[in-house]
Amino acid sequence: MVFSTVFFVSIGAKTDLSVLNPSVPANREGLIIAGFLIIVAIVGKVSAGFFAFTDEKINRLGIGTGMIPRGEVGLVFAGLGSATGALPPSIDVAIVLMVIATTFLSPPLLRLVFDTSESPSELVQSD
Q: Any idea where the Cation/H+ exchanger transmembrane domain is (predicted)?
């Protein structure tokens, strides 16, 4: 557990946030790639969860939406790529931004998928 915390902190500390400045024309490439990665990550994971299961009793959209924040493997590859110099800083920041965005977008999307309009006491009493 301690090593994973150190890993995530080290990846965040190595990220060059100056690449996120959209007023510099060279930085726009990384922001466009980050936006593309965010869209592909969300659409890919939701569609994989939706089409992987055929049982109608399973909330397939909920499964796909629940897979959205899975991005630690992307951080591992971003860390390896930036350490070896294989990834330019714009791509490295795009991957980190995608992981952060999908992590923060998934809870509101899960609330939309799993409608919790009933209070917890009503859910217990309905059994």
A: 2-109
